[in-house]
Amino acid sequence: MSCDLFLDLAWLPRPPADFKDMCRRVAGDTSGAEIQHLASFALDANQSTRVARVIRALQEQDRLLPPLTPMKLGVLANGTIDLVINALAAAAARHGILLECVTADYGLFAQEALDPGSRINAARCDAVLLALDYRAFPFVPSPGNATAAAANIEEAIVFLNRIREGITASGAVCILQTLAPPAEVLFGSMDRFLPGTPRHLIDGFNRRLAAEREGTADVLLDVTAIAETVGLAHWHSPSQWNLAKLSFADSCVPLYADHVGRLLGAMRGKARRCLVLDLDNTLWGGVIGDDGLHGIMLAEGDAVGEAYRSVQCLALALRERGIVLAVSSKNTDEVARRVFREHPEMLIREEQITVFQANWDDKATNIKAIADALSLGLDSLVLLDDNPVERGLVRQILPQVAVPELPHDPALYARTLAAAGYFEATTFSDEDRRRAAYYEGNAQRVVLQERAGDVDSYLASLEMEITFRPFDRTGRSRIAQLINKSNQFNLTTRRYTEAEVAAVESDPTCTTLQVRLADRFGDNGMISVIICQTLPESTWEIDTWLMSCRVLGRRVEQMVLREILRQAREAGIRKLVGIYRPTDRNAMVRDHYAKLGFTQIANEDGGPSRWMLDAATEIEPASMRVRRESPTDLHA
Amino acid sequence: MVDEIYVRLETIFRDVFDDDDLIVTPQLTARDVDGWDSMMNVQLMLSVERAFKVHFSASQIASLGNVGELAALIQRMT
User: Fold this and answer.
1) Which fold has domain A462-628?
2) Which pLDDT score, from 0 to 100, does residue A634 have?
3) Could you give the ipTM of this predicted complex?
């Protein structure tokens, strides 16, 4: 169901299998950042309770837990609030708040608010959440009687305002909730406009509530919108109300709590301020370096293209309300910028991106550079990236950066980003409106400083397995496809037809490799293709070496060379020769052979260069398992 | 079938009561478990409903005397 995206907090990573143990490991020296990490997963009721217990234990030791900001929240409700309270502590920590909750006895919300000496008012709360649903108010349906309806709404507002005054007198900010109308209708569609129906009364109340808030310090939590998003029938559970006076269904508790957490975070300046965008398969469909300006998908009228356009539309709308946009992409700078400059369907313009990082370095280092260039903390950044490996890297090395999980279907990227509520705000000022213009115009490229963190240990955690197999019938068409499509990581850009590839399979002067890579996120499929040609004097010349940019920075090249050298020595080869043939697309591999320890032996000006390596050279293994397979159906 | 229900119930009970040593038997009742009050009972029932994708009415919940009767109810409904 599409409401599951919201109910399951699908933008948050799932808790690891050992989550219980992670919570148990929390000790006296645990930092606020570690608590925030525990809360950063999509937690169910029991897991939230566990985190809440951990937080409470640390609070009892009077621990300050920076970067979490302490906040005392009173909660007044007309239903049972126990399930929500535990979820609130975890959700608040997720949004940078160390929450202490003060609650009232069941059914006493009005008394608690009005009595200056009550538990809530005496506790000197920073804010009080009025978690009231429609059942807390004296609504009396009067279908068709406009005068009675108006009086009834007024009565409900007066009642609410008395409660607000009581709370405000204690010095706390009120968090007011709009009311979710019940799913049950009286007439049908007429309920919307006929004065005095339950729906009409609640609509009227909600409008008045928003107006009453004007000019006060009070904050609004739009419960109506949350309930409508997941569906009123889902939100209200008559059974659970009867059973335990839950004013909304238990399945909605994580979502509700996260909304409260966002609001508290926004009240304490913890909302995010910058959206960092990946490019290939995030802002458009396809890979610009391989598919080219006319091959990528972002056209209006094309179902695939429109998915990416909706991401661009959302990014632009966010920018209009003051969110800074940046780019972090593994690409050649010039190639990536060309899309912004020349693609007719591109919605975001280059000057609307404040920092533009397109290079082949790791994303953690680039994102750190973006934060520094903008003078923003890493906890102000959100990274939108379709690639789970990149998301994992940034989460591990820069845990302060928010990195939403993305669903399989790009049509849901924009919805998922919006649903995550990273940019919650309680006010919107002229200054916010002007911020976009203030950041306009530079699309600056920042020079990278030192590495942001230990990429190697992240690579080790990926549990990579590389598989080598000579060309065969099974791999043939994919090999031919890669040979004809790869532009960027392609040393010679020699194109061969499928028939030519088939001929190479049985050519005794050729040694071939099709390379696959799997990791804990799944199988990346065939990601590299090698053809070595035997020359006189015990020499192999590397005719073709190409690789998918998706696995760049994972030491695949190193492992491939290790394998070539191993097979070369087995075949009695003494010398390996590599060729780099420059094209307008493959500048990224200009230094490929130099980086791998080859010596340059020939170079035509601006033309191909030749490189040599002694076959006896030993290459350090990278952290991945190696599998070697025989060709299938060799003689088919 | 019933055995499998007990295995799954034990996981749920351990999770809800945060007690990895809890052994679920047909005779087990609220009196036998620390902290099994009315609010925990609600949480337990909601967790069971979610895990087995069933919905209990208030009278069904009220009629349950021990875990054996809960397991039998789940078996009837799934």
Assistant:
1) Aminopeptidase (3.40.630)
2) 52
3) 0.92
